[in-house]
Amino acid sequence: MPQLLGVFEQPDHIAAAAKRLRDRGYTDMETFSPSPFPEVDDAVDEKPSGVRLFTLIGGLVGVCTGYALTLWMANDWQIMLGGKPFSSIPPYTIIAFELTILFGGLMTVLGLFLKGGLPSMKLHAAYSKRFSAEDFGLVVECRDRDVPEIDGLMRAHHATEVSLVEG
Amino acid sequence: MTPPPAESVAAMIRPTPVTGDSKANRDILRVMEGGSLGYFALVALSVGAMLAAGGVWIWQVYEGLGIAGYAHPVFWGAYIVTFVFWVGIAHAGTLISAILYLFRAKWRNAINRSAEAMTVFAVLTAAQFLGIHVGRMWKSYFILPYPNQRGLWVNFKSPLLWDTFAITTYATISIVFFYVGLVPDLAIARDRATGWRKVLYSILSLGWQGTSKQWKAHNRTVLHLSGLATPLVLSVHSVVSWDFAMSIVPGWHATIFAPYFVAGAIFSGFAMVLTMMIPVRRIFGLEEYITNYHFENMSRFLLLTSIIVGYAYLAEYFIAWYGMVEPEQTSFWKRAFGPYWISTWVMILCNGVFPQLLWFKKLRTNIPFLFVLSMLINVGMWFERYVIIITGLSREYDPAVWGIYTPSWPELVIVAGSFGFFCQFFLLFLKVFPVVAIAEVKELEIHAKAHGGSH
Predict the structure, then answer these.
(1) pLDDT class for B17, splitting at 50, 70, 90?
(2) Does residue B312 belong to any structural domain of this protein?
(3) Which of A17, B271, B299, B369 could pair with B374 as two cysteines, CB 3.0-4.6 Å apart?
(4) How far is B447 from chain A (nearest CA, A)?
(5) Among B162, B208, B211, whose Cβ lies nearest the Cβ of A95?
(6) Residue A101 to chain B, least CA–CA distance (Å)
(7) Which helix (H) or strand (E) holds B75?
(8) Structural domain span for residue B360
């Protein structure tokens, strides 16, 4: 199936074009953006990123690990210190806190990798270095007979060029 | 009259689009090109200082900690002072990246990259001093809770253990934060690089192409890492302060220590960012991206944290007097008028008094003044830790065991070498990674173009 690439100069133009195309039923699309513009990302898919779940799980695992590690180790090899109980929650809270952050942070990055499709070995055929400069790209996959409609739609939304993606 | 050639007619009808580059890309990637003689001289100086320190350190490993100036009762000396100093420096990066991100302070994005890099390098530098200080550094791993045949575990009630966890977590999270922010910019560099750089950036940029899925996950990740790093950055220097505050040494055993140390850390961190970025901006012509407005905002932070630190100095003296505990009173009296009076007054002047000049807008926007002031603050903050640690230990409860510590020359060489160690990484960073967060700076540019443009 052919892929059409539209190049835009402004984030609101590409966002409007993407939204319009989705309303017309073309859901197989991808955008390239040089900077983070939430309106562009939401035009393709308004669902919030799933990274949040990774952070939550990482944090919870971290806090449990922190308390479990300290409580178990302190009781497995008991050292009497200043008559304090072996299972002292206040000092162990510091360890639990640090591990919450550590595990939460590392899991967040795992979330970025899995949800963002990183690392990817191959760049998209339509990707070019102009999309890491100042241009925005919108790639839509469609049937042959829909090409004229999408072409017109992109141009109506101020696309500076529309071309067929080769390869 | 001959008609113009066909190509130029075509060009008039539809001018060839200038694509594939933007001003921000060019300006910032240019910093990474080549290297002047001055640059390599600085690299040689930094690496030289580091190697000198390395040589002395090897000698210390061979000879033992006897070559350091430790004298009863002072067994925490210049190494611990410098450790605390570098951990403090490491605080500005995360503060700028995480806390200012959460507050939506847009001015942060001109300086966040370099500040994050400084954070990573400062934590690495600080970590060296733990190994150097313990002497038998090949046994440093004893601090980790690892299974062993003796069935021993570490003591989680010790502040030193908390410190281990805080510093490792901070090092890991700040490296991760630095790298995640770099990925889109590495893709920019990848698209324009040739040769070995192309290979390096292709690997490091992980195949980033700025798709909606990637940006969405990236925005979320930065938000969550900021949310996690904000309490972390406040906790790290609190935990470092508890290394002292949990003991019963007069002058250390104070509840004010955690906020006092955190404010001091942010203070010294911002000073170090200014010390490094003022010359970088000048040398590489980044005035358009790092403006006086950024420096002025940073100097406001300096003023605020200087007031907090100055207040803490006063509060310590007040509580020592008001608490009527004799050893505490003696310790603070000796601090100001005892054998270490010079260090104390350097600390008070550099950290509490001189920064008050920043009340004047003229001085906040005077770049040479800011540069000199930031250097003085760096000195003052090193002396702050020196005063806390050395005067505290040298004047404990029993006058019969009072003693004097003077740093030995090997200690001073290693301390000086730590600056070389830090600077060599920073110099390398200037040439390998984009020094300003390009994608974020561009976001503002594209917005400006869209709203002030011809459409």
Answers:
(1) very low
(2) yes
(3) B271
(4) 8
(5) B162
(6) 6
(7) none
(8) 91-135+160-452
